[in-house]
Each structure stands twice: as C-alpha cells, then as structure tokens.
Amino acid sequence: MKKNQLLKSAHIVNPSSPFHSQIKDILVVDGVITKIEDSIQSEHDFEVIEHKNLHVSTGWIDVKSNLREPGEEWKETLKSGSEAGISGGFTHLIISPNTKQPLDSKNRIEYIKAASAKLPISISALGTLSHELKGEELSEMYEMSMAGALAFSDDKHDVSTGLMSKALLYAKNIDKLIVSFPNDNSLSKSGQINEGETSTRMGLKGIPSLSETLRIERDLALAEYHNSPIHFSCISSEKTVELIRIAKKKGMKVTCDVAAHQLFFTDKDARSFDSHFKVLPPFRAQSDIDSLIKGLNDGTIDAICSDHTPHDIEDKKLEFNLAEFGIIGLETAFASLVTVTSGKLSLETIINKFTTGPKAIFSLTQNEIKVGEKANLTLFDPERKWTFEKSDIRSKSKNTPFVGTQFTGKALGIIC
Fold first, then answer.
1. DSSP state of 330
2. N or C end of the chain, less CB within 10 A?
3. Are residues 183 and 215 in contact, defined by beta-carbon separation less than 8 angstroms?
4. What is the pLDDT of residue 2?
5. Closest CA to 362 of 149, 134, 65
6. What is the pTM of this model?
7. Can you give the residue ranges of every domain in the chain?
8. Confidence (pLDDT) at 45
9. Which CATH number is 59-361's, of 3.20.20.70, 3.40.640.10, 3.20.20.140, 3.40.50.720?
C-alpha cells in the first residue's frame, strides 16, 4: 500500500464528526487525515480508492474474538486472525484469554503484545480472571494489567460466586473491568441447543435461557454490592435484555454485547443436525432476537461482537452432541447484521455498536473523521449484494454456516 491514500466521494458515517452524513474526498498522508473536501485532485503518489457507494467510518472494533494462539495455532494464529479481521472490516480485535495456554500471566500478555505488534491491525488481550482458568484462585490481575491486559474474564468457563465477588472487588481497585459470560454450567451442562420445542423434537438436551438469566442476576447483585463495573459478553435471551435495561435505569455501571450471528439464526436452523449451528450461547427463539434488536435500538446493548471461534474439521464434523461449540464470524459479522436487520436497525446504530460502543466499554480513545486525526478507518458498502463463498474465508478454520449465503452489505477494506 502506498503511503498516501485518496478516498473519492466517501459517505462519512461518524456522528461526532463535523462531516457526518456528508459525501467528501478524504486525503490520508503518512497515516494522518490531512484534507476533507468536496473534491481533492489526485497526484501521482496517491493510492486512489474509489468505489460505487463508498462509505467510511472510524475503524471497527470486535470486542470478542478467539484467536487460538498460543497453543492451537493450526486453528488460528494472531496473523491469520488479523487477516480475517481485515476481511470483515475490523481495525482492532479484543481477544479472549481462553487459549490452550491461557492468558493468565504477565508473560502471556506480553507475548500477545509483542507477537501482534507488527500486524496491520491492533490486537488487545483480556487476561484470565482465575489462574489457569480453573476457577479456584484469582490470576495475577495486577501484573497482567501492568503488562497491557485490557480487562479480565474466564470467558465461557464457570466462575463461582465467591471468586466472582473477589474478582469484581479486586478489578475495581486497579481500575479494570470484569467481563462475564453469563452461563450457569450446572443448568446448561450437556446441553446442545436452546431448550424448547426444537430440542425436544431433535431429542437433544436443551440449554435453558434460565442458565443465562440466573448468572446475570447473580453478577448484577455482586456488581451492585461492590459498586463495580461489569460487562456481559454474548447475551442471547429476552429476559437478559430486560434485566440489564433495569440495571442501567438504576444507574449501575453495566454494559453488554451480543454476537452478530445470534441475530441471524434461531434454534430451528439446527434441525438439520448440522454442527455449524452449534454455538454457545445457543441460537434462541425469534422472540429473543426481537428483544435483542430492541435492546440495540434503545441502548441497552452497547456493542456487537463476532464471537469468532475457529475449530478444525475434526472438532465439527462429528455427531451433533460430540461437536464443539462455536463458529467463525469475523468475515461475516457486518454483512449478516445488515442483511438480517434491514428496516429494524439503522446503519448508524450498527456502526455505533462497532465503534463508539466498544470504545466506551473498554475506555479506549474516541477518534473522529476530521483533519489532523490519525487515519483509523473502515471502508464499506452497506448496499452491496454478494454471496459468501468458502474462498472468502481468511481464517485458518472454515466452521461457518454462512457459506453460500447471499448478503447485503460488505466491508471493502481498512486504513489503519
């Protein structure tokens, strides 16, 4: 890529920018926005970027990716994950600590920081909440914080009430955030899909939405008791949305996100016994999706994530009850959202959940599209129709139900 880029006739989507909703030419020189005008003359050393219906926003952030390094590099590496992120329009990935070698120490956080330093996008790591993800004792949270851990989570591992209480209090004292994946494993253990008519018809043990809401109620009570901030990752149920809405109205410091694929599929899609529809949390009912969309519109839900979870064929091409949970999602998050929420979510709302929302959750710098700012931009066309093929996958793993899906909306690239 040349050092200077000229974006022609770009629709700017950035409410905090003075150029929001305007069509402008944007000149980037040495990584800095130097001009935003109606028309900028091209020069020989400019890379001219020109697309029909070109849109531009500040760079998108994925608040939950699982990049399998260190430990399972055959599934995904930081490099291949960054390539998948770029393909999906992301300039920043926040990665889960749930790796084969958990991110539970200063050295592991420093490894991620060093290994990702030369990649074309930013990668930030969460540290584990407990040592070795065992749920028995707190991890070295302070040391990991000093090494650059953005927040702390045991991801989809169960956390006892006592340990969560200690973690919330400790994290508050070092000005860090606890990220909770709300799932009571004692209720969901051995479950395969959402508990309901479909699970009964399929003869599979269900995962009740109660396993999510009970954890939400517990962790909200603990967070309120300690006056600590908390973030809930990958919420999926109607009652969860209402619980968080009430907590926010009470003034609690609570935020949450939803995985993009959670809005696209229902539990009925799993009737084929295709393990690509086996995810955690499971795909729920249409009424849950409707509540999630309402929560995105009214601000109850702060961000949308990919929950990118790579698995190789040996983990997924199995009987449904033996297959691993999870699908890849970086390349399809934006496209699936625009496609399935047409007429229900505005483009501005979707972009907010990829930009302003994530930055507010993790106290990241809020940037704007204006002269003098460093160029951290995502380029996209919200109306482009295209079909997602296996050849579009940049991840090392191919576990996705979206192959062959016709989408509306496509990420075109990034300037980062």
1. T
2. N
3. yes
4. 59
5. 149
6. 0.97
7. 4-55+372-415, 59-361
8. 85
9. 3.20.20.140
Cβ–Cβ < 8 Å for 232, 256: yes
Q: Which fold would CATH assign to domain 4-55+372-415?
A: Urease, subunit C; domain 1 (2.30.40)
Specify the DSSP element, H or E, that contains 115. Answer: helix 106-115
**Looking at the DSSP assignment, which residues form a beta bridge with residue 415?**
377
Helix or strand (DSSP H, E) at 156: none
Q: Classify residue 3 by burial, with Cβ atoms within 10 Å: 0-12, 13-18, 19+.
A: exposed
Q: Is 179 helix (H, G, I), strand (E, B) or coil?
A: strand
Around Cβ 370, how many Cβ atoms within 10 Å?
14
Q: Which of 25, 288, 302, 307 is catalytic?
A: 307
Give the distance, in angstroms, between the CA of residue 50 and the centroid of all CA atoms in the same chain: 28
Name the region of 255 (left: φ>0; alpha: ψ -120 to 50; beta: rest).
Answer: beta
Q: How far is Cα 306 from Cα 334, in angstroms, rounded to an integer?
A: 9
What is the rounded CA–CA span in Å between residue 325 and residue 232?
19
Q: What one-character DSSP code corresponds to residue 152? A: B
pLDDT at 215: 98
- Which stretches within 190-272 are classed as H helix? 197-202, 210-226, 238-249
pLDDT at 239: 98
State the helix-helix crossing angle for 333-340 and 347-354, rounded to 10 degrees: 150
DSSP 12-68: E--TTSTTTT-EEEEEEETTEEEEEES-----TTEEEE--TT-EEEEPEEEEEE---
Residue 394 confidence (pLDDT): 97
User: Running along the chain, 416 residues long, what does each successive block of 10 average in pLDDT?
Assistant: 86 96 97 97 89 98 97 98 98 98 98 97 98 95 98 96 98 98 96 97 97 98 98 98 98 98 98 97 98 98 98 96 98 98 98 98 96 97 98 98 98 96
Query: Two tokens at 135?
Result: 């749920």
Catalytic residue at 307? yes
